[in-house]
Specification:
With 153 residues, this protein is mostly helical. It has seven helices and no strands.
Length: 153
């Protein structure tokens, strides 16, 4: 009797196919991998009892697309509105002295991130310089910087 029966052949092919498929999936860089920043931001928002949703993925996507420090807007949101607990018009960041708002929180995240990265008032500045432009009070800048360090710890 032949030890390599059609059933064994099918099983072998299935195993090989499965291994190849797993390798292809593992090498696909477009699939989301666990990003440690997600855990850090969620922990940060939970530490301060921020209301949900936290919009962690929106913060990360906006920061990555504009090459801005991902901790900046979440830290500002805590100082300005306790992460949205006291927001007005979907404005968690005190933008425009809260005289204007956004159609949604994600829209605000996108808009402010783009402004901090591309607007001539902010473009090319360090995070500290951006913060002083955003709010010129030294204690404000120190507070946001402290919160940004806390996110990373």
């Amino acid at each position: 009797m032949n030890s390599f029966t059609p059933t064994a052949g099918r099983i072998t092919r299935a195993i090989v196919f499965g291994l190849v498929a797993c390798a292809a999936v593992a090498s696909d860089s477009t699939l989301p991998l666990e990003d440690p920043r997600v855990v850090r931001l969620e922990a940060f928002f939970k530490t301060y009892d921020c209301p949900g949703p936290f919009h962690v993925h929106e913060y990360l996507q906006a920061a990555d697309s504009h090459a801005l420090d991902y901790r900046l807007l979440p830290a500002i949101s805590l100082v300005e509105s306790t992460c949205g607990a006291f927001e007005r018009m979907n404005n968690r960041w005190g933008w425009d002295s809260v005289q204007s708002g956004f159609v949604s929180v994600p829209a605000g995240i996108d808009y402010i991130t783009e402004q901090l990265a591309e607007n001539p008032r902010y473009k090319g500045k360090t995070v500290k310089e951006k913060l002083f432009t955003y709010n010129p009070y030294p204690q404000y800048v120190r507070q946001v910087e402290r919160l940004m360090r806390q996110i990373e710890d």
